Amino acid sequence: MLRYITKRLIFMIPLLIGITIISFIVIHLAPGSPTDLQTEMNPRVSAEMKERIRAMYDLDKPLYQQYLSWLGKLVTLDLGNSFATDHRPVFDKILERIPVTIIINILSMILIIIVAIPMGVLSAVHQDSLFDKITGVFVFVGFAMPTFWLALLLMILFGIHLGWLPISGIRSLNYEYLAPGAAFIDLVKHLVLPVLLSAFGGLAGLSRYMRANMLEVIRQDYITTARAKGLSERVVIYKHALRNALLPVITILGLSVPGLIGGSVIFETIFAIPGMGQLFYMSAMSRDYPVIMGILFIGAVLTLIGNLIADVSYALADPRIRVA
Amino acid sequence: MKAILKSEFWYRFSRNRLTVAGTILVILLFVVSFLAPWISPYDPGEINLRMVLSPPSGGHLLGTDQLGRDVLSRMIWGSRISLKVGFVATGIAILIGAVLGALAGYYGKWVDTIVMRFVDIMLCFPSFFLILAVIAFLEPSIWNIMIVIGLTSWMGITRLVRADFITLREREFVQAARAIGASDFRIIFIHVLPNAMASVLVAATLGVAGAILTESALSFLGIGVQPPTPSWGNILTAGKDNIDIAWWLSLYPGLAILITVLGFNLLGEGIRDSLDPRLRN
Q1: How far apart are CA A220 and CA B212, in angstroms?
Q2: CA-nearest residue of chain A to B222?
Q3: Nearest to A149 among B126, B137, B254 (CB)
C-alpha cells in the first residue's frame, strides 16, 4: 500500500508540471497586462514608465525564464508576491482564505453523502415507486438548475421575506461582542445557505449514480444466492448489496472535487464569503498573475489529492483491486 | 436495413414522453429566438425612466428592470444569445474532441499517451477557474465566451471518440479500406469517424445545456455578455442588485435557463436511450 501511494505521489509531479505550464501559458499569452490597469487611466504615464513597471515584475523577460524562476521559487513553497498594492506573499494570502472554502466544501460533501446515498438506494430498492419517481424528477431538475439562481431565490425567501438567515459574509457585524455559543450559532446561520447550495449540484448526480449502481448489484448472482440462503431482505439489501454498490461512489466523490472548488467562485461572490474563490475572482479582475497562478496550482493540488484519497480508500475497501 | 434501424430509433424516441417533452421545449426555444423581432412586445433596449422596476402587470407581463426596459422582451432576445453560445461553444468542443480522440484511438501508442495525459491535465483544473482566468484577461464578449467555453469542455468528447476508435479500428471495414490503399486521413475521417458520431451527438446535446449554464453564470458574474446586450445571466445580475425590491428580475430569467437546460438534457438522454437501450441506466 505504501509503495502504491509513493508511486502515485511521484506520478503527480509531471502532472503538476504540465498543469503549471498550461496555466502559465494561458495567463501570459492572453492579451492585456497587469500594468495596463495601473497605467491606462493615467495620462502622465509614459511608455518608458510602463517598461520600468514591467521590468519591476520581470514581465520583460522571455516566458520560459519567467516560468523557470516561478518553478524554482515554488520548490521552497514561495509563490511570489502579489501585484496588488499590498505586495504580500501569495502563499500567505491564499493560506488565510483557504480554511473557509475547505470547510464549506467538506460540509457540503458530507451533506451530499448523507442525503444522496440513502436517496439513491431507496429509489433503487423501490424501483418505479412514487418515491423513485419523485426523486427522478428532483434529479432531472437538479441537473438543469443554475445554482446561482437558486441562491438568489433562497436569499429572497429566507433572507428578505422571512428574515431567518443572513445573506452575506460569514459573520454578523456584532460578532466580536457575542458570547462563544451565540457566535457559533451566528457562524452556522451564515453557512447554511452556501453549504446547502454548493451541495445541491452534487446531490442530483450522486443519487442517480447510486441508484444505477444499486440496480446493477441487485441483479447479481450473489444477491440471488443470499436470498436463496434464506437471509432476510434487510440483510440482503443493506449488508450484501449496499456494500458492493457503495464502492464506485468513492471514485465519484474524488472526481467531484474540481467541480466543488470551481463552484466556490460563484457562491463566494454571491454571498460575499472571504474564501479562495472570491480571492480568485478579485485577482482575475485585477490581473494579479502570481495570485492567479498560485490558486490554479493549489486548486490542482487539491484535486489530485482528492483523487489520490479516493483511489487509496477504494483499494483499502475492495481487496479485488488492491494494487501490488 | 437502414430504414428499419431508423424507424426503430424513431419508435423508441417518440414513445418516451419525457423525450418528446424535451424536444418540444428545444423547438419552442428555437421558434422564440427566431421570431424575436416580431413577438417581443417592446424594443429590448428601450429605456423608460418613468417605469423603472415596475412589477409584472398588463403592460409589462414580466415587469421592467432598473432602466424601465421590458423584461419579457429582453428575455426573448436573450434566448438568441443562449442558443448561439450553446451551439458554437459545443461545436468548438466537438471539433477538438473528435480530432484528438480520433488520433489517440486510431494511432494508439505514444500519440494516445500524449493526448490522454493532456486530457488528465485539463481535467485537474477546476474548469470554472480556468474559464474565469482567461475571460478576465480578454475583453468580455460573446465571441470570447464561446471560444473559452469550447476550449475547456472538449475532454469528455475526446474520451468517447477514443473509446469508439479503439474498438472500431480492428474491424473488417477498416482493414478493407487499408487493403485498397486508403490513406490514414481518409480512414479516420471518412470511414471510422462517422461510426463514432452517435455517442458524440449525445454528448453534444448535453454539452449545449452545459455551455448555456456556464454562459449564464459568467454573465451573472459580470464577465460574460455585457449589457446593454440582453442575456439571461445579466438580467439576473440586475436581479441580485435589486434583490430586496424586484423579485421578478430574479425569478423569470432563471426559470428560462432552467427550462432550456432541462429541455436539452431530456433530448440528449432521449437520443441516447433510443440509439442504444443498453446504455440506459
Answers
A1: 40
A2: A285
A3: B254
ipTM confidence = 0.83
Q: Closest partner residue to A144 among B133, B137, B265, by Cβ?
A: B265
Q: Which of B137, B139, B205, B236 to mutate to test the interface with A (most CBs of A within 10 A)?
A: B137
Q: Which of A294, A275, A264 is nearest to A197 (CA)?
A: A264
DSSP A241: I
Residue A301 CA from chain centroid, whole number:
11
Neighbouring-strand partners of residue A89? A81
CA distance A122 to A238: 10
Q: What are the cell numbers at A205?
A: 448526480
Q: How confident is the model at residue A160 (pLDDT cuts 50, 70, 90)?
A: confident
All residues of chain B having their beta carbon less than 8 Å from the beta carbon of residue A280 are: 129, 132
Residue B123 CB burial class (10 angstroms; 0-12, 13-18, ≥19)? middle
* Residue A324 pLDDT exceeds 60: no
Q: Which fold has domain A98-274?
A: MetI-like fold (1.10.3720)
Cell 424528477 -> residue = A137
Outline where DSSP puts E strands in chain A. none
At A39 the pLDDT is 59
Tell me the chain B residues in contact with residue A262 when contact means C-beta distances shorter than 8 Å. Answer: 126-129
Torsion from C-alpha of B66, B70, B71, B75, nearest 10 degrees: -130
Q: Is B70 helix (H, G, I), strand (E, B) or coil?
A: strand
Longest dimension (CA), chain B: 76
Task: Going residue by residue through chain B, which has 281 residues, state the pLDDT in tens, using 9 for 90 and above.
Answer: 556 556 677 777 777 778 888 899 999 999 999 988 888 888 887 777 777 777 888 778 788 888 888 888 999 999 998 999 999 999 999 999 999 999 998 888 888 888 988 898 888 777 788 888 887 777 778 888 898 899 888 998 998 889 888 888 888 888 888 888 888 888 888 888 888 888 888 889 989 999 999 999 989 988 888 888 889 988 998 888 888 888 888 889 999 999 999 999 988 888 887 776 555 54
The answer to whether residues B270 and B22 touch, using CB atoms and an 8 Å cutoff, is yes
**pTM of the model as a whole:** 0.85
Domain boundaries, chain A: 2-95, 98-274
- Integer Cα distance of A264 and A278 in angstroms: 8
Output phi, psi for B64, to 5 deg: -125, 165
Contact status, residue A182 vs residue A171, Cβ threshold 8 Å: no
Asked if residue A45 has pLDDT above 50, the reply is: yes
C-alpha cell at B75: 428575455
C-alpha cell at B252: 423569470
For residue A262, give how far its alpha carbon lies from the nearest alpha carbon of chain B (Å).
Answer: 5
